Hints:
binds flavin mononucleotide
Amino acid sequence: MAITVLALAGSPRRNGNSETLLGWCLDAARAEGAEVVEFRLCDLDLRGCRACDACFKDGTCIQKDDMHLLYPHLRDADSIVLASPIYSMGMPGVPKIVVDRCQPFWALKYILKQPLARTEGPERLGAFLCCSGTDLPEVFSGSRRVVRYLWHVLGVTPAGEVLVPKVDEKGEVLAHPEARAAAEDLGRRLGRQRDT
Ligand SMILES: Cc1cc2nc3c(=O)[nH]c(=O)nc-3n(C[C@H](O)[C@H](O)[C@H](O)COP(=O)(O)O)c2cc1C
């Protein structure tokens, strides 16, 4: 069976720097034979977690929005890649909503004590692709921490990151062949068949 890759594009800017990184990564994953499912998060109807704690009862979210398109993929994809810009020294609101709305997985793990990790299938891998306009110290730190948390909650092994500072205007990342090589390398890892 082909490896499945869930791709989450977190920028509202179409074909911007982080989406370009994502495209390189996904082309490489597809070349390994992976099946890719891609969502542009800003095109979805996504609302913030309401802290209602309903998911503490059965590990499902009672809000009725497009998170329900993502939940099955977040649970079952063999690989997950999140691409995002830096906004205000952290992750933009829309991808952060997706992370917050993974609270049902947290509830399954820590309240309901149910195993989240699949009993069969390959090790799940996760990758983070990110661009910032500056190279300020710590510019990626907050987002990296959030993504590490996400992989932990989803039972995903971190496979790597491509973090590109000082790309601001759309297309500036095209001048970074080393970033392209790193994104493609990650894509191959995410898409390649691996031991179950
Ligand atoms: C609302 C907003 C806030 C931003 N905040 C930061 C910031 O705090 N630090 C930084 O280095 N770049 C910041 N940027 C610049 C983006 O990270 C940069 O333009 C990036 O390349 C955008 O990626 P994209 O093309 O994938 O959207 C900000 C951009 C926007 C629109």
